[in-house]
Amino acid sequence: MYNTIFIIIIAVLVFGYVLDRILDTLNLKYSLPDLPEELSGIFDPGEYKKSQLYKRDNTRFAFITSSLSIAILMLVFFCWRIWMAGRKAFKRYIQLHPLCTVVFRTDGSGK
Fold first, then answer.
1. Would residue 110 count as lying in a domain?
2. Which residue range(s) make up the domain with 31?
3. What are phi and psi of 93, to 5 degrees?
4. pLDDT tens per residue across span 33-60
5. Structural domain tally of the chain?
6. Contact (CB, 8 A) for 58 and 23
7. What is the pLDDT of residues 12-33, one digit of tens each?
8. How many whole angstroms separate alpha carbon 14 and alpha carbon 22?
């Protein structure tokens, strides 16, 4: 049960990340660098160019931040399982080691 839920959570996160990257790439690919004729009297061409450059830079920055975010999240998820397995051994080490007993004031009861 735990493994199934874990795999579903990881799959949903990875699917969302990949879908966002695909959509951002398609948005950048089909954005027009020049102002369309329909908007020539309404919107300033210089401002339009500036907004397109901002959109491109913002999308690239979002790619970097979301990639870093998903990498950290995956690291936390996978290390969580390792930490849960090693938690009892770490508690025993703290209780048995004399220096840890003084620093953490453990009395050996495990609380």
1. no
2. 2-85
3. -65, -45
4. 888 888 888 888 888 889 899 999 999 9
5. 1
6. no
7. 999 999 999 999 999 999 888 8
8. 12
